[in-house]
Amino acid sequence: MLRDRYHRTRALSCHYIRGIAWAFTISKKTDVYGQVIEVPWLDYGNLLIAKAELFEFDMQPRNERIAKEIELGWKGLKDPRSKSGIDREEEK
After folding, report:
1. Which of 61, 75, 76, 78 is the most buried (most CB within 10 A)?
2. pLDDT category of residue 2 using cuts at 50, 70 and 90
């Protein structure tokens, strides 16, 4: 049972990662002076399960067609708290 749940969760995670890789170019962030901000490769939390500390990065749609698909998909999402559809702060 747990093994099946693990495999389903892993498959779903891979699906999301593939979607992000298809849609976006991900790169290191630059500061206001144009200098690259390095990724802190060895900074981990101190919990039992090690996970990387948060860091900033740039993420841009790969092309205009993909950007339009993402925008249409975002606009088509329904906020579960709203009975009539989209009800996000930035769209009010």
Report:
1. 61
2. low
Entry field: residues in the chain: 92
- Whether the model clears a pTM of 0.70, i.e. scores above it, the answer is no
Distances (CA, A) of 92 to 52, 75, 89: 35, 13, 5
Q: Where do the DSSP E strands lie in 1-92? A: 24-28, 57-61
How far apart are the C-alpha atoms of 8 and 2, rounded to whole Å? 10
Please state the domain extents for the chain: 25-91
Tokens of 86: 């989209």
Whole-angstrom Cα distance, residue 8 to residue 14?
10
Strand bridging mode 57-61 / 24-28: antiparallel
Cβ-proximal residues to 10 (8 Å cutoff; 6+ apart), any chain: none
